[in-house]
Design brief:
It is built from three helices and no strands. The protein has about 70 residues and is mainly α.
């Protein structure tokens, strides 16, 4: 008995289809999360994180309120 015979007898065809469905579900969920209407402000803040001087500050300098 060869390894090829064992693998073909295991009927593994459905695993590829299940993996495809799981990938498509994850891709759709991520796409909806990224492009939903309310996430623009969060993405704007995340865009400036590497440039922020104060790591505790969550807002970018252009969106901060000016205090007298």
């Amino acid at each position: 008995m060869k390894l090829g015979d064992i693998m073909s007898a295991m009927q593994l065809n459905s695993y590829a289809e299940v993996a495809l469905v799981l990938f498509m579900a994850a891709f759709t969920a991520i796409t909806v999360h990224v492009f939903r209407a309310g996430s623009a402000e969060a993405w704007e803040q995340a865009r400036h994180l590497p440039l922020d001087r104060d790591p505790d500050e969550n807002r970018h300098a252009s969106t901060r309120s000016v205090e007298p």
